[in-house]
Amino acid sequence: MITTARLRLRPLTENDTDWWVRLHADEEVARFVGTYTREQAAARLQAIHRQWTDRGHGLCAVELRDTGETIGRCGLNWWERFGETEIGWTFARPHWGHGYATEAARAVLDWGFGPLGLDRITAMIHHGNTASTAVATRLGFTPLREDTVLDRPCTVYALDVSTSARRGRP
């Protein structure tokens, strides 16, 4: 469990299946991360659970500390194809523009570079996702390469532990 001033991050579980489907059903959210059927969501959450078991990290549900409401997801995802650990964030539209993505991602970066001992974390952002690009830039990420993820072009941003430490992180 990771906590910040306003948020609590906990591993996603199969109990989050219906919430996952609802989050991705919003057309503005789905524009960059796609939609899921209940079966697809359950399979994705099982894969996330395997990452937690195999790698000691994965995606988290992001909850408001004051109310316990689940407002998004943020965490680390291992991409075998790239040999990279990626940070990702997705929030329900009513919670955009409140700084939650930056707050949650900053805490995940501290965890990744601190206790997990990662040297580099990437952020794969689909073209046109200006809000996520702004979050990545705010956190100190810089463009690494152009690539294709989920059959769509994206810019892969990177942050190294040495750069992160110079910016005041562990």
From TrEMBL:
<protein>
    <submittedName>
        <fullName>GNAT family N-acetyltransferase</fullName>
    </submittedName>
</protein>
<dbReference type="InterPro" id="IPR016181">
    <property type="entry name" value="Acyl_CoA_acyltransferase"/>
</dbReference>
<dbReference type="Pfam" id="PF13302">
    <property type="entry name" value="Acetyltransf_3"/>
</dbReference>
<feature type="domain" description="N-acetyltransferase">
    <location>
        <begin position="7"/>
        <end position="162"/>
    </location>
</feature>
<dbReference type="InterPro" id="IPR051531">
    <property type="entry name" value="N-acetyltransferase"/>
</dbReference>
<dbReference type="InterPro" id="IPR000182">
    <property type="entry name" value="GNAT_dom"/>
</dbReference>
